[in-house]
Amino acid sequence: MPRYDVAIIGGGPGGYVAAIRAAQLGLSVALVERDRVGGLCLNWGCIPSKALLYSAELFHLLRRSQEFGIACDNLRFDLGQAVDRSRQVVDRLVRGVELLLSKNGVIVLKGTGRLQGRHEIAVEPGGQTTEADSILLATGGLPRTLPGVGIDGQTVIASREALELRQPPASIAIVGGGPIGVEFAYLYRSCGCEVTIIEMLKHLLPQEDEEISQQIERALKQQGIRILTSGRVEEISHQQGGARVAVTVDGRAEEVRAEKVLIGIGFAANSEGLGLEENGVVLEKGFVRVDDHMRTSVEGVYAIGDLTGKLMLAHVASAQGVAAVEHIAGLETPQLDYEKMPRCTYCQPQVASWGLTEAQARERRGQVKVGRFPFRANGRALAMGSTDGMVKLVVDAEEGDILGYHIIGPEAAELIAEASLGGTLEAAPTDLAWAVHAHPTLSEAMKEAALDADGRAVHFWRG
Fold first, then answer.
1. CA dihedral defined by 408, 409, 410, 414, rounded to 10 degrees?
2. Helices (H), 8-45
3. At 188, is the secondary structure helix, strand, or coil?
């Protein structure tokens, strides 16, 4: 029976990054993956969805082409061709990950891994077993559904089926107003679909700063998307040509009829059938309980990514994977702060954030001050014709540290990197304001928001 320093179950962005980092540290590594490396994110999540969203963004821009002096005739959105391109992007990245694993000497075992003790994994089919000094669980998550609602893959679909649709439906009801629901709403509305989003909480993107959530709602409504917030789905029933969704909104009954219903309410841990509880691994609400070093309740067994339920984002899984294997290798690793992780939504306008919302900051710190800068006052945004949105900074009024960065607008997902670096370096608004930003760039909005926190914005008058 082969024995390794580290054996990893799951080859997603947590597992494969952990495998490569472990190999860099001189450890022998086996990676068990039942499908293609890259996991849900690369194959059926982050990457194909962003490829499709970029197609939607280009189509939306081309429809405005006359504003930019460009004439376009017979413009149409070919969703099937966009899907084909998205799969090509996925295939290329999968091959790249396979090559990286090979070059780093990681042994990839095809099959479904199951914990069979603190140092042993069974790989099915075939019954092959692998031993390791340390085992890392990285099996990711599975799409959640509503109680009593079955996903048939035809009328009622999840994100995977949505990423394979080659013909846009005439109408679609999207249950869930988080990042998944909002992104698909933007995509299908760009295709000309009638789109309704049903969100149980008060606002879309309910984990974001409330001011940002309100702005994305306005932007999506302007695009013709119907939004039902504070809406509870009571029943989804099939009917000829689609489905009927019975919804209660603030105590009143509503009905949404659509050709398709997309369930986009997030993910649950993929923890079934792994032999966890049988081997003493403690679960909490289906998620694996871990400490700051990603250790489970069983010595020598670690867990990362969506399986832990800490923050279900690919880059968080990667960071956890690095933290876990560096701890296995005996290195000192800083504790991950999940509130200080960038969060992005890739509709248009984009939304990105880091740290605390204004409400959270006021609750925890008391007195805060807020700096804002609208993109309509930014030269680069005006040149691009993308002026919706703003940058918002939440600052501790006494200590002066930036508690939260919030962006809605063009390239927000790229701009948030400055917030992540600033947060890591504990930058204050004065640091951000003193840093020279190239002109004209969207990033100048970050500098101006920092200046505005102290009432010193140059290119915008609050009044």
1. -20
2. 15-24, 39-44
3. helix
Q: Which residues are catalytic?
A: 439
Which domains, from first to last, does the chain contain?
Answer: 3-143+268-338 (3.50.50.60), 156-265 (3.50.50.60), 349-453 (3.30.390.30)
Q: How far apart are CA 322 and CA 304, in angstroms?
A: 10
Q: Measuring CA to CA, how many Å separate 282 from each of 136, 287, 303, 327, 358? A: 15, 9, 11, 20, 35
Q: Alpha-carbon distance 235 to 159, whole Å?
A: 20
pLDDT in tens, 336-376: 999 999 999 999 999 999 999 999 999 999 999 999 999 99
Contact 196, 203 (CB under 8 A): no
pTM summary value: 0.95
Q: If we measure between CA atoms, which residue out of 89, 61, 86 comes closest to residue 75? A: 61
Q: Provide the pLDDT for residue 1.
A: 65
Segment 2-16, tens digit of pLDDT: 899 999 999 999 999
Is residue 90 helix, strand or coil? helix
